[in-house]
Amino acid sequence: MTTDTNQRQIFSVSELNRSVRQLLEMNLPLLWVEGEISNFAKPGSGHWYLTLKDEQAQVRCAMFRNTNQRVNFKPANGTQVLVRCRAGLYEGRGEYQLIIEHMEEAGFGALQRRFDQLKVQLDSEGLFDQRHKKTMPASVTQVGIVTSATGAAIKDILSVLQRRFPAIKVSIFPTSVQGEQAAGQIIEAIENANRHGHCDALIVGRGGGSLEDLWPFNEEKVARAIFNSHIPIISAVGHEIDFTIADLVADLRAPTPSAAAEVISPDGNEILNQFLVVEALLVEAEVRKINGFGQQIAHLQKRLQHPGRKLQEQSQHLDHLDIRLGRAMKNKLQEQRYRSESLRDNLLRQHPGQAIKRQKLVVINTIKQLAKTVGQQVHDKRTKTEQTMHLLDTVSPLKTLGRGYSVIRDSQGAVIKTINDVKRGDNLKGQVTDGEISFAVTKTANTNL
Fold it and tell me: What pTM does this model have?
């Protein structure tokens, strides 16, 4: 054992951890690792720290902020993930760890989550709303089938249609139903069927499979193509337990392709039986009709009479009508005669000459009464006027002046009522019964003193 320290390569702990880290990073390429998340932590720095584990082992992992921002789901404890990472060593603790550069959900869980998210989105947009569902035609003469040309589904559909109602025409729009190219081909097939324009309904589907196998029928663009189709669509994807987004958007969902063919086609045997029943009913109705006509003929034969007898009956009927007509005309003439005489009597009683005489007497009497009334009113007015004139004459100022009185006025024409209204030297006028006297005031004296 060498004890010479000059020949030893001595590492510090930091140097050792750094060397191990470099060995790991240089010798291991980018790795893909699948596992279940546990001990998930998201501190304030925004970095993620977690442990990936399976049934037998676990490894610490870190995903830094600048890369975890691109993850399109929220990781949590128990989530199964697939990560692309680099192997490394955390020198501070000497712990082996994985530096994650990409993370995605793994396996069935990821697909199921995508299914649930798309289902919620399309439901909120109304693509599942029953109001938008187109009604399947009552009678189908041509049906379109969108599926694989070599799969079991097309064989089942054609077998059912041939058995139930061979008269239905079939147009096949072949497409892939699995894999990355399937969704685009399914959309193109639906659009071709709509451009074709001869199909009364479309069956879109395939046989059963895993969620990954059926995934083209869960694609958003396929769902929108089904929703936008002018032709009613029956979705028939997988078995009864399988359920896809296409089933929810379609106008009708069938649990299997065979069931879709049964829905779209009538039962030929049942229709034949219905025809047979209708045929029997028609025969029975015709027999009743013929028997009825026979009874009517027999009845008419009994009623049939000799033409001569019929002519005698008609001649007798005409004679009766002639007698009734003569009586009716006679009664009508007599009635008109009575009515004319009545009108003549009324006319004589209401002759205009008589009415004029009566009105003339009324006018003469009215004139006499009016003359008498007017004369009386004139006499009354004259008497009242004479009395009024006598009364006016009695109180007339002229009468007063005639008795020796006079009215004295100043130069302005105002009546002098008291000696206070004048002074010496004023010019006054005195009105007497036959004229006017002008004079001047030389003296005033108060007689009440």
Answer: 0.45
pLDDT value, residue 322 = 83
- For the record, the structure tokens of 96 come out as 């082996």
174/214 Cα distance (integer angstroms): 16
For residue 152, tell me if it sits in a domain.
yes
- Quick check: is 41 in a domain? yes
- Residue 133's CB: how many other CB atoms inside 10 A? 14
CATH code of the domain in which 134 resides: 3.40.50.261
- Residue 107, phi-psi category: left (phi > 0), alpha (psi -120 to 50), beta (remainder): left
Q: What is the pLDDT of residue 279?
A: 84
- Predicted pLDDT at 171: 94
| Boundary-marking domain end, from 251, 266, 281 | 266
Distance separating alpha carbons of residues 159 and 166, to the nearest angstrom: 10
Among 105, 133, 156, where does a domain finish? Answer: 105
Residue 145 lies in a domain: yes
Does residue 278 lie within any of the structural domains?
A: yes
- The residues near 221 (Cβ < 8 Å, ≥ 6 apart) are 183, 184, 187
Determine the structural domain holding residue 426 and report its residue range.
400-440
Tokens 């005031």 -> residue = 441
Tell me the per-residue pLDDT of 383-405, one tens digit each, with 9 for 90 and over: 888 888 777 776 666 666 667 67
Statement to judge: residues 94 and 213 lie in one domain: no
Q: Write out the H or E segment, with its range, that includes residue 147.
A: strand 142-147
Residues of the chain with pLDDT under 70: 1-6, 107-110, 304-306, 309, 349, 351, 354, 394-402, 404, 448-449
d(CA 151, CA 258) in angstroms, rounded, equals 13
